[in-house]
């Protein structure tokens, strides 16, 4: 493919190409929290006008991945360490409720999809690609949420999982570097089995432990890598 053809192809995709690229770079922390996103520089980078760039930034803002400041400049959304305890509290509740409902209400079709997503995550882990892992992790948990048949809880859960993907990236990095714990694959397998057996209480217990492992390792990562006076809260999610 010639350079000219490639430019035309990228231009033809409009804002979606910019959105997909920036979203992936934000979630993978290639674009770090607080990074300035200048429309003109991005337009030059993607060889586009500023309009599709602006549209992409608006959509990223709707997902709370970028923030527009009072001076109208746009930055990659900070990871709010101070609010992490509240975030993980909400995640714990959403994760437990959706997993409980899945165990109670799942169909055979639901079970097949959850199993498929569980295998996809295990495959992603083998690649070592943290972005692929976080996307596959989200798809696994959303398959569980859809099995719970409550669109409101599923929607809330989806938002929380999306907001947590950058923190999950740090979670993966910590586990790989320290070899303390495992990359969620064992926990996913146990959750799948509990849902298959329609064991609601065990599904609840495993979902809670799943949140707790994520919380503990994220806090350990932050304490190991950053000097901060911000309290990260207790080392356990609410019982």
TrEMBL record:
Q: What is the protein name given in its UniProt record?
A: DNA-binding GntR family transcriptional regulator
- HTH gntR-type domain segment(s): 12-79
Q: Which Gene3D superfamilies match?
A: GntR ligand-binding domain-like, Winged helix-like DNA-binding domain superfamily/Winged helix DNA-binding domain
Q: Which UniProt keywords apply?
A: DNA-binding, Transcription, Transcription regulation
The UniProt entry, under Pfam families, shows: FCD, GntR
CDD domains hit by this protein: WHTH_GntR
**MF GO annotations:** DNA binding; DNA-binding transcription factor activity
Indicate yes or no for the key word Transcription regulation: yes
Tell whether Membrane is among the UniProt keywords.
no
